Amino acid sequence: MIEKLKNSDVAMAKKIQIVFQASYKIEAKLLDATNFPPLQRTLENYIQSKTAFYGYSINGELAAVVEINTDNNFILIRSLVVHPYFFRQGIAGKLIEFVFDTFKSNLFVVETGLANGPASKLYEKFGFVAVHQWDTDFGIRKVKFEKRVQD
Predict the structure, then answer these.
(1) Distance between CA atoms of 14 and 84, rounded to whole angstroms?
(2) Lowest mean pLDDT among 9-23, 50-64, 137-151
(3) What SS3 string covers 4-18?
(4) Dist CA 113 CA 31 (whole Å)
(5) Are strands 75-82 and 52-58 parallel, antiparallel or unpaired?
(6) In this predicted model, what pLDDT tens digit does every residue of 33-55 receive, in sequence order?
């Protein structure tokens, strides 16, 4: 089940942070990153965030979270994380479909580390196209994907 999460609630923010931390530890290994800023995100940052968080729960347990920013002329998937216990169950794809069905836009944008092959394959499967690559200040090569939607 997918539902909007109230990240301003401390207990919910802690659940969100647990899923993010578990997932990003795996991504940091994929990227061979020793300094990975998503792992340094504080509980207070989740609580104060103005982005929208949607969670996918299984038997009452938060299994995955997608973080959406709608402040621009496009929909930005800021984060899409699945707890490692729930990998390879199609949950990330369900969250992407949810984003497409819920948010109306001509442009969807997402970024990931270039060496994160599973994420890149997932985004490409849903019609995203790599449009830009760059090196970050913390030593990770990133890739930006876009999906354009016609009215």
Answers:
(1) 17
(2) 137-151
(3) EECCCCHHHHHHHHH
(4) 7
(5) unpaired
(6) 888 989 999 999 999 999 999 99
